[in-house]
Amino acid sequence: MALLLKLAILPALLALAWADFPIDADFLSDIVDTRNDDDVKYRLPESLDPVHCEIEITPHFDATADRPAFSFDGIVTINVIAKEDGINSLILQENVREIGAITVTEENGRLIDLNPSSPFERLTEYQFLKINLRSGVTLSKNGKYTIRIEYVGHMNETPLSRGMFRGSYVGKDGKTHWYAATHLQPTHSRQLFPSFDEPGFKSTFKIIVNRPANFADTHSNMYAESRSEPINGLVKEVFYTTPRMSAYLVTIHISDEFTIIADNGDAKRPYRILARPDAANQGQYALEVGPPLTKWLEEYLGKPYYEMAENMKNDQIASPFWASGATENWGLVTYRELRLLYEEGETNVVDKMSIGTITAHELGHKWFGNLVTARWWDNVWINEGYASYFEYFAMDAVDKSMDLADQFNIMYTQSALATDSSASTRALQHTVNTPTQVSGHFSGISYSKGAALLNMLKHFLGENTFKKSLNYYLDEMKYEYANPDDVFRGFARAVQEDGALTQFTNVNITDFLSDWVYEPGYPVINVDINMNTGNIYIEQERFFTTTGSSNQVWPLPLTYTSASSPDWSNTRASHVMTSKSYNITKTPAHEWTIFNVKQNGYYRVNYDTHNWELIAEALQKDVNAIHYLNRAQIVDDVFALMRSGRMTHALGFQILDFLKKDVSYYSWYPAISGFNWLRNRFLHLPDVLAEFDEILYKYLDAAVTDLGYEAADSNEPLTRTLNRFYVMSFACNIGHEGCVQHATQKYTEMVNGGKVDPNIRRHVYCSGLRQGSLAQWKVLQVLYLASNNQADEVVKLRGLGCTSDDQAVKEYLEMVLTDAVKAQDRVNAFTYLYMGDRGNAQKALQFIKTNHNQIREAVVGSVRFNTVLANLAAYTDEEGLQDMESWLEENKDSIPEYSVGVSAVASARANMAWGTQNADSILKAARGSAAMVLPTALLLIASLFALLMK
Ligand SMILES: *[C@@H]1O[C@H](CO)[C@@H](O)[C@H](O)[C@H]1NC(C)=O
Ligand SMILES: *[C@@H]1O[C@H](CO)[C@@H](O)[C@H](O)[C@H]1NC(C)=O
Ligand SMILES: [Zn+2]
Questions:
Q1: pLDDT over threshold 70, residue 935
Q2: What is the distance between the alpha carbons of residues 61 and 256, in angstroms, rounded to a whole number?
Q3: Which residues of 406-421 are buried (b: 16+ CB within 10 A; e: fewer)?
Q4: 599-604 average pLDDT score
Q5: Is the pTM of this model over 0.90?
Q6: Which residues contact 678 (CB under 8 A, 6 or more apart)?
Q7: Which residues contact 775 (CB under 8 A, 6 or more apart)?
Q8: Ligand 2: which of 537, 579, 949 to mutate, most ligand atoms within 8 Å of CB?
Q9: Cβ(571)–Cβ(559) under 8 Å?
Q10: Cα of 384 from ligand 3 centre, angstroms
């Protein structure tokens, strides 16, 4: 899985930048993640080892005499080896519609007697199928047996149910086209076939599909070995055997017209893009990035992809409906359309970049996830952390123009630091048992912290040793499952061989890794510099945004550089801190020192006030005195330090003042998050908000002027376009006059038939509609409904949410419950509405109160409806919260989301209270920040003073 949009628990919160939300993303997972000792009952016994599995599926899109429409017949045949004597019942997992005939046979084909009164039981709570042998009959250790099960399955209505689901769309030909796809990760193989549905059970798979003769060829993990002539209206398609793999990687895509839209035509190293034919013009970019990514990964990881099994292919298919961003099914990766299909002039650069990075993520999974697999989902970072790391670094290797190695910091390291700072954060290795817990652990931590840890290791060990350790691990564990110890062993061997850490006698790499993998959270280091003596005293403590305390100590690779000889290129640690406090001696000098060079270490840094002041002064004089990645670090750390009460607002804003002169993407990306976070806590204080926004316009001036409202040069660097995308969205959103004027003018041009550059559409639509009429809203709605590029379709949907027109809001809300908004987009669709205009929260609340049953159904279940309520509360004023509260109380028994709703209300109030409490202090600091920077003469005196004191 790739992160973003792919998580079952918090789809909307994570789909959008975390800082867009006034509510802390972790509060929901607390509620969902309840556990008890009985949960291990959800795990399969390990007494049987599946070796090979044959699955034959006959889909029914239409009802037949004895089958309802959207069902399928299945026959699964599993060859197993008994791992012990005395087995009298065989347990596997299933969550299908009906179980029919079951047989168990010995290797010689002889039937084994089942219990005549109860041949099998369906333990639905655990989704187990228990096959009972006749009393006294047992399997023998190392004996080979075959289990054959006939069954009937569902084609679910939406992708959000996973398993096999159906999708339909109207083509350019005006006809409705159907398809069925499968999404089995993480615990949904059992919906497609009774299975050993845990990643640690690996076997080979042979898939057979009997598809309607008038349909297009079915696609699966492997090429078809044969396709029969139609018999009774069905074509029998037999696929080659897969490599040995986990059941969640199985996939089938049955459709009436999906086709190959791009193909590299290379018989030895095939790479193809598949989609609905109407998207035939959108596959070129995906084809451009995929083959070089595959090649680079092969060389870096030392295992050729196309030799992983016989007949390997490397297909990528775009599905209009998909629960997550993409899923790494071996041989046929499935993507939500917008994550694979690019259309020039329609798709914006943010989405284009995602196509590259997510392709890299999914291809990275071929090694980390498919070839070697997490034993169980408690260590899913072994799959997702690596895939997320390569998402940026593999893509960077094949396209330098995207600056992805640098973007890794703001996109992954900083987002990990943000989510990992709550008291309820999980360690990378975190016990999970039930399907709900499993989905919960497919969280930001497994992806972003996993990746950030790998990045820290690369810089700590040096890239050669890092790479060698991955090669050892993959070579030793290929086609098997892995635990953290297996990862650690690869590192230990490479480190030992290369002598990579010999200068650090206090470091044992295995212990180092254990600390990072088994401990939750991360530290902030408090750095106190005596500029007189050069002594640097460092203390570490776990960083919590709000409350929490702990005595944890992490092994920290330290890097630093100082003003007199700044060195931003050396990112190898000079010291490793393995205790609570630590001293370093540098050359005494009255100068700034910065720790965590280019933020490659996974920790935050706080300094004594004087060092901070010197940093602020240096940045005032020349922002480029400090490397842009360390400016990104400073911005992100300063906001976090202020939030956690470790830094005064006065000092924080004194430092942040340099943003008024800085136009770097790397500074502004975290700055926008930080400013939004504060701003979202002032929504209930109109006067404060108005003044704060005035201050922010001054911060934005230089960046807005430098970027311009539109690109002057169509060949500008990608990060400049990205910077404009985020800066203008922010500026327009907070009412920056120039931005709003430009955007409304563009919107008017569009209404009159003009075309808007996709890279500014998000804020042009939003600003245009916020003040616009119903008629103007309808113009965009028509374009939305006609859109043939999904990335742009979602931008338009988001834009439609920005209206404040009552009738338009009403029509928008009604539309969300229809097929005009895809099930996967509905939770976000609600959020777009209140993000677009806070006043819409009230209107949405009234709609949700009346229609909650339909909404729960439309977003497919309570987990997602929880998110709708939580986001709603976050944007609702006190009056609305009271309304929401009394509705929840009055319907306590009929609203399953009651407790989440109540917590969301409390959380929203806590955020407002925080704003009320801190408003004066923040305004004062923000207002006065420039004045606080001392003139040079004074500074000289101040520094002399400091020199005496320290
Ligand atoms: C590192 O520690 C592990 C146990 O945590 C131990 O097994 C191993 O021998 C140690 N390695 C070295 C080089 O001391
Ligand atoms: C480290 O420096 C601090 C502050 O200067 C001092 O109190 C402490 O004794 C030093 N510790 C060591 C181990 O040198
Ligand atoms: Zn993934």
A1: no
A2: 11
A3: bbbbbbbbbbbbbbbb
A4: 98
A5: yes
A6: 639, 692, 922
A7: none
A8: 537
A9: yes
A10: 5
The C-alpha atoms of residue 247 and residue 244 are separated, in whole angstroms, by: 10
Q: Strand 332-336 and strand 315-319: pairing?
A: parallel
Q: What's the rounded Cα separation, in Å, for the pair 759 and 770?
A: 19
Tokens 């374009």 appear where?
Answer: 783
Q: Going by DSSP bridges, is the β-strand pair 593-595/560-562 parallel, antiparallel, or unpaired?
A: antiparallel
CA distances from 806 to 373, 774, 801, 829, 905 (A): 51, 9, 12, 17, 25
Spell out the domains of the chain, with CATH numbers in brackets: 33-37+376-518 (1.10.390.10), 44-360 (2.60.40.1730), 523-618 (2.60.40.1910)
The span from the CA of 122 to the CA of 102, in Å, is 13
Dist. CA 304–CA 365, nearest whole Å? 14
Strand ranges (E), 497-586: 523-529, 535-542, 556-558, 560-562, 575-577, 581-585
**Tokens representing 886?**
């009394």
What is the number of the ligand closest to the CA of 508?
1
The count of other CB atoms within 10 Å of the CB of residue 875 is: 25
Surface-to-core class of residue 819, CB atoms within 10 Å of its CB (0-12 exposed, 13-18 middle, 19+ buried): exposed
> Is 361 marked as binding a ligand?
yes
Residue 384 known to bind ligand: yes
Pocket-forming residues, ligand 2, beta carbon under 6 Å:
535, 537, 583
Residue pLDDT, tens place only, 294-307: 999 999 999 999 99
Amino acid letter, residue 225: E
Radius of gyration of the CA atoms of the chain, in A: 29
Closest Cα to atom 1 of ligand 1: 508
How many angstroms separate the alpha carbon of residue 429 from the centre of ligand 1? 20
CA distance 575 to 179: 58
CA-to-CA distance for 564 and 592, rounded, in angstroms? 9
**Structure tokens belonging to residue 480:** 């098997």
**β-pair type (224-227, 128-132):** unpaired
Distances (CA, A) of 811 to 631, 692, 829, 848: 45, 34, 13, 14
Q: Are 438 and 460 in contact (CB under 8 A)?
A: no
According to the annotation, is 691 in a ligand binding site?
no
Distance from residue 362's CA to the centre of ligand 3 (Å) = 6
Work out whether the CA dihedral 213, 214, 218, 223 comes out positive or negative: positive
Across residues 169-186, what is the average pLDDT? 97
Which ligand number lies closest to the CA of residue 500?
A: 1
| Annotated catalytic residue within 237, 362, 613, 793 | 362
Q: Express each pLDDT in 708-724 by its tens digit.
A: 999 999 999 999 999 99
With CA atoms as reference, report the closest residue to 320 among 358, 285, 282, 346.
282
With both helix axes pointing from N to C terminus, report the angle between 609-621 and 649-656 in degrees, rounded to the nearest 10: 30
Contact (CB, 8 A) for 163 and 185:
no
Write out the residues surrounding ion ligand 3, Cβ under 5 A.
1-2, 384, 387
**Which bound ligand lies closest to the C-alpha atom of 539?**
2
What is the rounded distance in angstroms from the CA atom of residue 424 to the CA atom of residue 410? 23
Residue 680 has pLDDT above 80, yes or no: yes
Ligand 1 atom at minimal distance to the Cα of residue 508: 1
For atom 10 of ligand 2, the residue with the nearest CA is 583
Tens digit of pLDDT for each residue in 77-114?
999 999 999 999 999 999 999 999 999 999 999 999 99
Phi, psi of 173, deg, nearest 5: -75, 0
Residue 749 bears catalytic tag: no
* Predicted pLDDT at 707: 98
Q: Tell which atom from ligand 1 comes closest to the C-alpha of 496.
A: 13
How far, in Å, CA of 199 to CA of 187, rounded? Answer: 9
CA pair distance 287, 257, nearest whole angstrom: 20
Please tell me the predicted confidence (pLDDT) of residue 554.
98
